[in-house]
Amino acid sequence: MVLKKQSKKLLILYLLYRRHKLVIRPHRRKYWVHPILQNRENLGVYKTLYNELRSDPKKFFNFFRMSISTFDELHVTLKEEISRKDTKMRKSIGSEEMLAIAIR
User: Fold this and answer.
1) Counts of helices then strands in the chain (DSSP H, E)
2) Residue boundaries of the structural domains of the chain
3) Residue 63, class by beta-carbon neighbours within 10 Å (0-12 exposed, 13-18 middle, 19+ buried)?
4) Residue 45: φ, ψ to 5°
5) pTM metric for this prediction
6) Mean pLDDT over residues 45-60, rounded?
7) Residue 71 to residues 3, 6, 40: CA-CA distances in angstroms?
8) Which among 68, 73, 78, 69 is positioned nearest to 99, based on CA atoms?
9) I need a labelling partner for 14 at 20 to 30 A (CA). Which of 5, 24, 29, 71 fits?
10) CB 82 within 8 A of CB 94
């Protein structure tokens, strides 16, 4: 009888310990940057589409609702305000790309 009570207590303690261990375990990241996004600078939508739009003023105007010269003037005006610095961990998004995203 005493052995049964002791084994029940041990089982309960083990289950509590296991639950505690599962709850406290932090989630570890698999990636800092997902492999799909690592090539964003070269293969991303901004890089490919923006260069094509700049070559065709009508398409650029249709996409951004402003001319290329207006976009460039706006970029020069806002560049200092929206620019970010690169860090050791990651490169920042360029001011021209930020402006394109904000306008779109």
Assistant:
1) 6, 0
2) 2-103
3) middle
4) -60, -45
5) 0.64
6) 92
7) 81, 77, 23
8) 78
9) 29
10) no
Cβ atoms of 66 and 100 closer than 8 Å: no
Structure tokens at 91: 């490169």
Instruction: Check residue 2 and give its pLDDT.
Output: 64
CA-wise closest residue to 41 among 74, 77, 2, 90:
90
- Distance, in Å, from the CA atom of 16 to the CA atom of 59, rounded to the nearest integer, reads 64
Q: 52 with 77: CB under 8 angstroms?
A: no
In terms of phi and psi (left: phi > 0; alpha: psi -120 to 50; beta: otherwise), the region of 65 is left
Return d(Cα 92, Cα 37) in angstroms, integer: 14
Amino acid sitting at position 61: F
| Alpha-carbon gap, residue 73 to 67, rounded angstroms | 10
Q: Report the amino acid identity of residue 15.
A: L
Contact predicate 94/41, CB 8 Å: no
Q: Tokens 């084994």, residue?
A: 7
Q: What is the mean pLDDT of residues 82-86?
A: 90
Q: What is the pLDDT of residue 23?
A: 62
